[in-house]
UniProtKB/TrEMBL annotation:
SMART domains: IG. This is Ig-like domain-containing protein. GO terms for cellular component: membrane. InterPro entries: Ig-like_dom, Ig-like_dom_sf, Ig-like_fold, Ig_sub, Ig_V-set. It comes from Dicentrarchus labrax. Keywords: Disulfide bond, Glycoprotein, Immunoglobulin domain, Membrane, Signal, Transmembrane, Transmembrane helix. Residues 25-122 form the Ig-like domain. Pfam families: V-set. The chain crosses the membrane at residues 181-205. Residues 130-146, 159-175 have a biased composition (Low complexity). Residues 1-18 form the signal peptide. It is found in: Membrane. Belongs to the immunoglobulin superfamily. TIM family. It is a single-pass type I membrane protein.
Length: 261
């Protein structure tokens, strides 16, 4: 029973294989899809050669289900709707060396649940035919579609180049503006420091003048007070001496006064 179940799982996990014919100088698309509504966005990769037991040992391009995460060359493109589970790979401008096996692997959680498809590409010379050799995976159906794809790729490259140029110019302008703003701020800061220093010096000078003036007034008042005290002391001494002289004159035998009975 276990052996039968294991064989069933291996059979389910076995990948399909399709033959694809492409023409040199043209594009070719390998079809690969999964049910994104059921599984949600899943990691996947395209491999050059046989798909290994895990991941991709020779990856060409990979995605996390929303955006492209790695790419070996700009010739490998995922032009389908990733949000709809279309992870088909397009190889641009085929060359003879592109012939060989390619593999698509969508990583689904769980044992032996990965979706795997193999494609055997043969690149031929000459004019491209309008019919496809396989229904599931084929090259582009018309030259109009190829021209549109190539023009879209060229337009995208031009837009990217223009965007990079604009970003570079904006970055340079931003750096120059930042330097100018820094210089202006430094000048304003030094100006404020100078104004504050000058104000402090003026305030200190005025305060010092007021202190000196107060000290001079105190000294002047002290001198006046000392002078006034000396004058008062002289007047007091003079008055005491006068009183003493008067008392002396009145003493003794009565002086010049006569006694009247």
């Amino acid at each position: 029973m276990k052996i039968a179940l294991l064989l069933a799982l291996l059979t389910v996990s076995e990948c399909s294989s399709s033959a694809v014919v492409g023409w040199r100088g043209h594009n070719v698309t390998f079809s690969c899809r999964y049910d994104i509504k059921y599984h949600g966005p899943e990691w996947m990769c395209w491999n050059r050669g046989e798909i290994p037991s895990r991941g991709c040992d020779n990856p060409l391009i990979s995605t996390d289900g929303r955006t492209v995460t790695t790419r070996a060359s700009s010739r490998y493109q995922l032009l389908g709707r990733l949000d709809e589970g279309d992870v088909s790979m397009t190889i641009l401008n085929l060359t003879q060396t592109d012939s060989g096996r390619y593999g698509c692997r969508v990583q689904i959680p769980g044992a032996f649940n990965d979706i795997k498809h193999h494609f055997d590409l043969t690149v031929e010379r000459g004019e491209k035919q309008t019919t496809s050799s396989t229904p599931s995976s084929s090259s582009s159906s018309s030259s109009t579609r190829e021209t549109s794809t190539e023009q879209t790729d060229n337009d995208t490259t031009g837009q990217l180049t223009s965007t990079e140029t604009m970003l570079t110019s904006s970055s340079s302008s931003g750096q120059l503006e930042g330097s100018s703003v820094t210089v202006v701020l430094v000048c304003v800061l030094f100006g404020l420091i100078a104004l504050v220093t000058a104000g402090a010096i003026i305030i200190i000078a005025r305060r010092w003048k007021q202190i000196n003036k107060i000290r001079q007034q105190q000294v002047h008042r002290s001198v006046q007070f000392s002078s006034t005290s000396s004058s008062l002391e002289l007047h007091r001494r003079s008055a005491v001496e006068n009183i003493y002289n008067i008392d002396t004159d009145r003493g003794g035998d009565g002086g010049e006064y006569e006694y009247c009975p």
